[in-house]
Amino acid sequence: MSLTIADGVKQLQTAGAKITSQRIAIMKALEGRSDHPSAEQLYYELKPLCPKLSIATVYNTVQLLAQASLVRTLSIDDRKINFDPSTEPHGHFLCKECRKIIDIPLPHEKANGLAVHDDIASVDHTEVFHYGACAECAEKSIQNSA
Fold first, then answer.
1. pTM score, two decimals?
2. Are 101 and 77 in contact (CB under 8 A)?
3. Average pLDDT, stretch 33-55?
């Protein structure tokens, strides 16, 4: 499931938040994305379109959307927090060279949140992070060492 503007508006209203043109612009910027933007990235993308937009508005709006399970907050990168508009179960890969985040499928058991240990009654949330070099950076490294 990915963020839709209609779902976002509904959840913001449920949370008692105002529906502003800036918040609509943030949701539009997230809708249908397959990358994992940070709040700063969203801010710089939207600032030319919304001159009165503040970084605080971006953070607050995305946090409200995360609390409503409409986006995921990723702590894969120790330099910043990224947001994932796709809430379907999947893992993530971070290239340690270019910092690109790539979605990776999870094995079926993890995707369904199966408890595979006798002491675990249920699993509500799973995060799987992998780190290494993406294909593009690995190729550059090979070319630079030749």
1. 0.77
2. yes
3. 94
